[in-house]
Design a protein that fits this description.
- By secondary structure, the chain is an alpha+beta fold.
- The chain contains one helix and three strands; from the N terminus they run E-H-E-E.
- Helices cover 15% and strands 20% of the residues.
- A three-stranded antiparallel β-sheet has the order 1-3-2, covered by helices on one side.
């Protein structure tokens, strides 16, 4: 599982087979009533992504 916080990292993880699970919006996120991350809106928001790994064989 990874947290991809911008478009570049999201693109890289997608290319490596990670799937999007949960997305948050920088524009909508508020802390103490203020949109502290609104300047990062071009990146949409962080994505939680995961990928199933193949078991390692004991050979």
């Amino acid at each position: 599982m990874v947290e991809a916080t911008n478009r570049t990292s999201q693109h890289i993880f997608r290319n490596q087979g990670f799937a999007e699970r949960v997305w948050g919006s920088y524009r909508d996120h508020r802390y103490d009533g203020k949109a502290h991350f609104a300047a990062f809106e071009e990146h949409r928001g962080p994505l939680l992504m995961d990928q199933m790994l193949e078991p390692v064989s004991d050979s």
